[in-house]
Amino acid sequence: MTKLVNGDLCIFSGNSNLPLAQKIAGHLGMELGKIRVERFADGEIDVQILESVRAHDCYIIQPTCPPVNENLMELLIMVDAFKRASAGRINVVVPYFGYARADRKAAARVPITAKLASNLITTAGADRIMTLDLHAAQIQGFFDIPVDHMRARSVFLDYFKDFKREDLVVISPDVGGVERARKFAARMDAGLVIIDKRRPKPNEAVVYNVIGDVKDKVAIIFDDIVDTAGTLITVAEKIKEQGAREVYAACSHGLLSRNAVDKINKSSIKKLIITDSLPIRDLGPKVETLSVSYILADAIKRNHDGRSIGDMFN
Question: Does 164 qualify as catalytic in the annotation?
Fold first, then answer.
C-alpha cells in the first residue's frame, strides 16, 4: 500500500530534462532539491542526495527519453538512493515513458519491454508513478503501484481554440489511437477521421484507407508520439491528396529521430505542435513546442495535498 505522509514536498530532477523540472518547481514556488547525478570514468552512474529527505514527500522528475537506457538506469539509481535515505514517499514523475510501444507480444518470441521497465521502477522502490500520455492506457496495469496518467490534451485545446470548428476534422493516424483522437475531437467539437494503416516493418507506414471526409477541411493529426515522422508524413500526404485544405499535427512526445525534422519541414504539414515532455531543441520553423509543466506541477501539488488529480481533466 502506498504510504501517506505529511512531510515536506521536495522536487528533484535527473539529467534527462532539467529545464522542465525547473519550470515545474517554479510553478510550485520552489527550488529543485540538491542532488548530484554524475558519471564515473567508466560510465557508471554516481548519485548522492545533498540534503535530508527523511520522511519527506519526494518527487523525482526524469523522462526516460533518448538515450533511453542511460536515463532509465539513472532513474532507478536515484529511486534507490531516496529509498536508502528514508524518504517518506518516492513519487516518480516520468513525462515520457520510454519502451511504452513494446506493450504486447506483436510477434512470436519478443519481449514486453513496457512491463519490464514497469517492474524495474517498482522494484527499485518507487511508491507512485506520474506520467503523461502513455502510448497505451493498459500500461497503467503493468505497475503494482498507483499510476497517475495525465493528458497533454489541454495545451493542444488552448492552441487550436480559435480555429473555426465547422472546418475542422481530427485525424487518428491508426486504429489504436481512435479513442485518444475521439476525445480530442469531442472537446474541439470537430469531426473524426480514421486512417487504416499497416506497418510492413518498424518505422515504416502504408495507408490503405481514409475513413471519413477531409475535403476542404483543416485536418489535425492527433497522436501521442512522433518518432521518425514516417507515419505522420504518409498520413499528411494522403489526406492532402483527398482534398484537405491544411494539415496540422499535434503529438505529445516529439522524439523526432534521424532526419524527422527535415522531412517535416519539406512536407505538406503546416505546423507540428509538440510538448516539452522531452528536452526542447531547435527544430526549425514548422515545429512548435508547448509546455506541460503547469499540468505536472498541478498534479504534484494535488497529490501532495491528497486531492483528486482526475478533477484536473473534467
Answer: no
Q: Which of 94, 53, 89, 88 is nearest to 76 (CA)?
A: 94
User: What is the CATH T-level fold of the domain 154-290, as seen in this structure?
Assistant: Rossmann fold (3.40.50)
Classify 36 as helix, strand or coil: strand
pLDDT per residue as tens digits for the range 185-209: 999 999 999 998 776 666 566 777 8
SS3 79: helix
pTM of the model: 0.93
Q: What share of the chain is helix, strand, coil (3-state, %, to 5)?
A: 35, 30, 40
Are 21 and 32 within 8 A, CB to CB?
yes
Least confident of 5-9, 43-47, 212-216: 5-9
Strands 287-290 and 269-275: parallel
The least confident of 146-150, 197-201, 232-236 is 197-201
Q: Do domains 9-151+294-313 and 154-290 have the same CATH topology?
A: yes
Q: Which three cell numbers stand for residue 110?
A: 519478443
**Which one of 105, 164, 183, 197 is the catalytic residue?**
197
CATH of the domain spanning 9-151+294-313 = 3.40.50.2020
